[in-house]
Automatic annotation (TrEMBL):
Residues 124-310 form the Exonuclease domain. Residues 333-344 have a biased composition (Pro residues). It comes from the Eukaryota. It comes from Muraenolepis orangiensis. CDD domains: ERI-1_3'hExo_like. Its EC number is 3.1.13.1. Keywords: Cytoplasm, Exonuclease, Hydrolase, Magnesium, Metal-binding, Nuclease, Nucleus, Phosphoprotein, RNA-binding, RNA-mediated gene silencing, rRNA processing. This is 3'-5' exoribonuclease 1. SMART domains: EXOIII (SM00479). Residues 1-57, 324-344 are annotated as: Disordered.
Length: 344
């Protein structure tokens, strides 16, 4: 729901009727996305490793990477375009994106030569972007219920969208969609009236994930556009549906943080439409369709992976609260998905 998710955030923070803990951790200036902790001219730590000390960069390859980064920082946009073209790399996007892409390419080449190849920890990334009931003024007492559950499956090895899941959901509290909600999402009253309640749809999501052997044969993680989908919408929906919050959704990649940190973009330029624009992409489909939004978020994630970003979980839920995942935390995939359990 992109922009509208931000508009409803204040209403969600004051929601207390269902005893939902809406407190969140503040987002620090130095974010832990993509495990980038270096300065513009310094190389990143070894891919997949814990944060490094200065002595860990004694390998001459890092000096070469740092020198190359400094040279790339001084290049004009035209010079970047020419160099990317020579290397047969993507030339789209703003100057900052082009610089990051060229640095990443050079770093990967040097690390391969020095027997330190970049890793791909997750086999699959599941992009989720819920649509929920809403009103134009979003009164504080209004409870947003999930009405569309999409999942877009990214294969991190082939760098392609491999599959997708989508189902609509029948709300239980606010059963009548507002005119504003219908116009925004394109989801009609007839569609939700004919849909199953959330706990049944979640069961089919779990079965869909299990059939693809995620969490058993393949390592995977969820990815969202912002914090709201898991920390707000799913958190509240589970309480409404009287089920426990699913363990496989307790940790995820917030792509806005990853994008901002990797390309060194300001927070104001992390809306879905802006991220696409800065990467030289155009939105495909209908805005505020959960499935179309998920596909476009997946396109951003794929571009970041191709540009060398090692996407890692950077947010998680603990005791009903939204927290950041420390950059020093061990890398872990989501657990095997299990059918939802009822609340005690």
């Amino acid at each position: 729901m992109d922009d509208h998710k931000e508009n409803i955030d204040n209403g969600l923070r004051t929601s207390t009727d269902l005893n939902v803990n809406m407190s969140t951790a503040s987002e620090p200036e130095k974010l832990n996305s993509c495990r980038k902790t270096s300065t513009a001219d310094d190389p990143d730590p070894l891919p997949g490793s814990s944060p490094q000390t200065a002595s860990d960069f004694s390998d001459p390859v890092y000096k070469e990477i740092a020198l190359a980064n400094g040279h790339i920082n001084r290049m004009t946009k035209d010079e970047l375009w020419v160099k990317l073209s020579e290397l047969k790399l993507d030339t789209s996007g703003v100057k900052g994106v082009m610089k990051t892409r060229l640095k990443s390419h050079y770093k990967k080449q040097k690390l391969k030569q020095s027997a330190h190849p970049p890793d791909t920890y997750y086999d699959y990334i599941c992009v989720v972007d819920f649509e929920a009931t809403c009103q134009e003024d979003n009164p504080p007492e209004f409870h947003h219920e999930i009405i569309e559950f999409p999942v877009v499956l990214i294969n991190t090895h082939t760098l392609e969208i491999e599959d997708a899941f989508q189902e609509y959901v029948r709300p239980e509290l606010n059963t009548q969609l507002s005119d504003f909600c219908v116009e925004l999402t394109g989801i009609t009253q007839k569609t939700v009236d004919e849909a199953d309640p959330f706990h049944q749809v979640l069961q089919r999501v779990v079965r869909w994930l299990q059939e693809r052997e995620l969490g058993t044969k393949h390592k995977y993680i969820l990815l969202t556009d912002g914090s709201w989908d898991m920390s707000k919408f799913l958190n509240i929906q589970c309480r409404i549906s009287r089920i426990r919050y699913p363990p496989f959704a307790k940790k995820w990649i917030n792509i806005r943080k990853s994008y901002m940190n990797f390309y060194k973009m300001p927070r104001t330029q992390t809306r879905l439409s802006t991220m696409l624009e800065k990467l030289g992409l155009q939105y495909e489909g209908r805005p505020h369709s959960g499935l179309d939004d998920s596909r476009n978020i997946a396109r951003i994630a794929l571009r970041m992976l191709r540009d060398g970003c090692q996407l890692r979980a950077n947010e998680h839920m603990h005791a009903g609260r939204l927290l950041n995942v420390p950059s020093s935390a061990p890398l872990e995939g989501a657990p095997p998905p299990l059918n939802p359990r009822t609340r005690d």
